[in-house]
Amino acid sequence: MTLEALKDRYTVYKQLMRMDKPIGTLLLLWPTLWGLWIAGNGRPDPLVVLIFVVGTFLMRSAGCVINDYADRHYDMHVERTSQRPFARGAVTEREALWLALVLAIISFLLILPLNSLTWLMSVPAVFVAASYPFTKRFFPMPQAYLGIAFSFGIPMAFAALTNHVPLLAWLLLLANAFWTVAYDTA
Length: 186
What we know:
- This protein has a single domain (3-185), classed as Tetracycline Repressor, domain 2 (Orthogonal Bundle), CATH 1.10.357.
- It has helices at residues 3-16, 23-39, 46-70, 93-111, 116-135, 142-151, 153-162, 167-185.
- The protein is mainly α.
- It starts with a helix and ends with a helix.
- The model has no long low-confidence stretch (mean pLDDT 94).
C-alpha cells in the first residue's frame, strides 16, 4: 500500500470516527468527568481521569463507526449524511466493523489497570453503545436509549474510583439521560 493510499484510509477513518466533530465526545465526556469528580470527592486520581478521557474518545469513535454501519443503507438517501464514508462508497462493511472492534478493544485495554467492577460495567456499556444505532428503526424513543449510552461513564467512574456503584451514580445516569433526551430531541 502506498503512502498516498494510507493517507486516504486515514482520512476516511477520521471521517468515520467523526474526529472533525468533537461535540459528541464532549457530550459523553462531561457527565463522565462529573462522575469522576463526585466519586473522587473533588480529587479524582489523575491516571483514572486520563484513562476515562482517552476511553471516552475511543468509545465515541467506535459508536460513530457502528452508527454509520447501521445506517449504511439509508445515509446515501439523506442530504445531511450523503457524504459519509459508507454513503459515498469510501469504506467497506468489513473495514468499518474491524475499526469499531479495534477501537473497543483498545478502550478495554485501557481499563485493565482498574478494578474488576469497572471491567464488568464495561460489558453493558459496550452493549448499549453498540446497539443504540439499531434502535432507531424500531424503538419509539431512541433518544432515551442514547441517553443511557451517553451516561454510562458515570457508574463506570464510580466503579473505577470506589469499587462500588451507589444509588447516586444511577440517579446521575438518569438525570443525564433526561438531559440527552432534551438536547437530542430539540
